[in-house]
Amino acid sequence: TVYTATVTSPVNIATLKYWGKRDTKLNLPTNSSISVTLSQNDLRTLTSAACSEEYESNRLFLNRKLESMETPRLIEVLKDLKKLREKVENSEGNEHLPKLSQLNLLIVSENNFPTAAGLASSAAGLSALVKAISKLYELPDSLSEISKIARKGSGSACRSLFGGYVAWEMGELSNGEDSKAVEIAPLEHWPNIKALILVVSAHKKDVSSTSGMQLTVKTSDLFNYRINNIVPQRFEEMKKSILEKDFNKFAELTMKDSNSFHSTCLDSYPPIFYLNDYSRRIIRLVHLINEKSVKENGKIIVAYTFDAGPNAVLYYEEENEKTILNVFYKILSEVTGWDAQKFDFKNQEYS
Ligand code: DP6
Whose CA is nearest to atom 14 of ligand 1? Predict the structure, then answer.
């Protein structure tokens, strides 16, 4: 017999960044973070998990390439999931259940976006893997409970288990039992928020998040100020802005947090540069757009955020899409070769 389960898990993009670990083995963070999970129809990982008496070893195919399952993180993740399955199998009345915890696994995973572009692929990938195996094992545990396992695979993955607006509470315990993702609000709460990803470079990032944050924790003087004096209050304010659908506040906090995170990167020694000239041009353009619209009607209409790479994610409310794309027409067509003329987007004002 072959037992199977298939799931999808979307990419999540942090608006309040996770950067720094207090425990590198358990992926316990030095601050709480917030993200928006894109919808299931956007960038996502599709993963099938299967197990059978006939499989002689664990195997994992990522975008059709065989990958090792023997990495320390994956070993941890599988151990935890198997433990939960054993609990189900050993509980009273479940004697008839097949002993799936004893069987080898076959995992097949595909991204619908370029993995190399540094678009939080590990978050979607790890969360899809954990979700698929939890479904295969029919685990009764809550998503927050399962998120602790995803966290061990890759910190940011814990947030992708939930859709919409998600918080990862850093927790205090040294065993990580209280470091988990929780829902702030579902996507439908604020459905007109859109994310636009500007891929200015598809090169693999120079410094991985995992090693970048280690260097920042060790060497940056600004870092302690960020985690102690900035993030705790920002975390509460950002949650509030989401619950109140206050775009002005949400956008301001998102942009400031991206800048704060990249400042600690620059303050690392030797410094880490994730942004490039295009990123900085995008930042300036966003501020120009906002200045104009604040002057006209007091409203900020677009926010940028950058992860550990030069690609921008813009957040805006759908009704402002055309205004924003008009301005980005030039930079979009330059970088991507996209013929924006066809779409009738033109704006001389910012050129
Ligand atoms: C800048 O989750 O990739 O995207 O826990 O070492 O796997 P590991 O790191 P990872 O770091 C993500 C960093 C970030 C910010 C964020 O997503 O919150």
Answer: 307
Distance 308 CA to ligand 1 centre (A): 8
> Would you give per-residue pLDDT tens digits along the chain (351 residues)?
999 999 999 999 999 999 999 999 999 999 999 999 988 888 899 999 999 999 999 999 999 999 999 999 999 999 999 999 999 999 999 999 999 999 999 999 999 876 655 666 688 999 999 999 999 999 999 999 999 999 999 999 999 999 999 999 999 999 999 999 999 999 999 999 999 988 887 776 679 999 999 999 999 999 999 999 999 999 999 999 999 999 999 999 999 999 999 999 999 999 999 999 989 999 999 999 999 999 999 999 999 999 999 999 999 999 999 889 888 876 667 666 655 555 444 444 443
CA–CA separation, 85 and 100 (whole Å): 8
> Which amino acid, residue 141?
D
The reported pTM is: 0.93
> What is the 3-state secondary structure of 317-342?
EHHHHHHHHHHHHHHHHHHHCCCHHH
CB distance 159 to ligand 1 below 6 Å: no
Q: What's the ipTM?
A: 0.99
Tell me if 160 CB under 6 Å of ligand 1: no
Nearest CA to ligand 1 atom 7: 154
CA separation (Å) from 65 to 93, 101, 192, 242? 40, 25, 37, 39
